[in-house]
Design a protein that fits this description.
CATH class of the largest domain: Alpha Beta
Order of helices and strands: HEHEHEHEHEHEEHEHHEHH
Helix content: 25-40%
Structural class: alpha/beta
């Protein structure tokens, strides 16, 4: 493991802050950690004596478990924090909560929070390394990194490749981080979904916009399918889930009509039968389980490269 190379940023707050060189460094490091994960003994002492707190103010299964596993594979000391079982439920502020945790000599904070910008606020206010595990509808940087890493594993360099992001673009932190990451790697990106679920400003990010799922799949090398986030929707953006599935859902019959193989991805959790059917999610074209596997390696790489003691590991 290279000891001299570091990220250009002291925190991972979003993909927007990373350079293409940062992304390549994370990928190169993840490749090495993926080899570690395939060994009989899946643990290295790289972050021994480093204490990391997982601070989750929103429910999470995949991301929280993936980070926790990555931390333990690096031999870090791990503290898990649940907002529902803490003084936050009594009115304690975010800053007070984190400062209390830091007084226990924590080195890094991995945080998911419903408010956009929460991770950036924390980075300005406290002396610890911050990793954004998702802030509201803003960014989810490690998901974008693992998605792009998984695409490269499957189809090689993303330079000039056609990547479609399909579904609830408006409410998705995954969409923004994916767009930023993919364009920095030279991919051509198109978003597709109902007009009500595509932000009016999305074209400013240099992406194409389509409302036709068949045309988009014919164009795409990879389709990253996003979940319909009903919990974030305070109004009706389309008549029904059945109608969404009819016009924008991806099923086996639709894929077979294309005459080519499109790589299928989904960050999870999947609404089976809505944005994607089971016979597509579980097909040979799908790399959904590879995304989950690569998530641990990518998060190991991010933690290793950002950890205050990483250079002494």
């Amino acid at each position: 493991m290279s000891e001299s190379r570091k990220l250009s940023q002291p925190h991972l707050l979003g993909i927007r802050d990373l350079t293409p060189e940062d992304i390549r460094l994370i990928f190169d490091t993840a490749v090495q950690f993926k080899e570690v994960l395939n060994r009989p003994i899946k643990k290295v002492p790289s972050l021994r004596d480093t204490t990391i707190v997982n601070l989750f103010f929103e429910n999470s299964t995949r991301t929280r478990i993936s980070f926790e596993l990555a931390e333990k594979r690096l031999s870090a000391d791990v503290v898990n924090f649940s907002a529902s079982a803490s003084s936050v439920s009594k009115g304690e502020t975010l800053i007070d909560t984190v400062n209390n945790i830091l007084s226990m000599k924590v080195d890094m904070v991995v945080m998911r929070h419903p408010a956009p910008g929460a991770a950036e606020l924390l980075a300005r206010k406290i002396k610890a390394t911050i990793v954004n595990a998702g802030d509201g509808t803003h960014e989810h940087p490690t998901q974008a990194l693992l998605d792009a890493f998984s695409m490269e594993e499957k189809i090689g360099s993303l330079e000039g490749k056609h990547i479609a992001i399909v579904g609830d673009i408006l409410h998705s932190r995954v969409a923004l981080s994916n767009i930023l990451c993919l364009t920095k790697l030279g991919a051509k990106v198109r978003v597709c979904g109902p007009p009500t679920l595509i932000p009016k400003w999305i074209h400013t990010l240099g992406v194409e916009v389509s409302y036709d799922i068949r045309d988009t799949l014919e164009w795409a090398d990879v389709a990253n399918i996003l979940r319909i986030q009903l919990e974030r929707q305070d109004t009706r953006y389309f008549p029904s889930l059945r109608e969404y599935a009819l016009y924008f859902g991806i099923n086996r019959a639709l894929l077979e009509e294309l005459g080519k193989d499109v790589v299928i991805m989904h960050p999870g959790p999947i609404n089976r039968g809505v944005e994607i059917t089971s016979d597509v999610a579980d097909s040979s074209q799908s790399i959904i389980l590879q995304q989950v596997e690569n998530g641990v390696a990518i998060r190991m790489a991010v933690l290793y490269l950002l950890a205050p003691r990483a250079t002494n590991a």
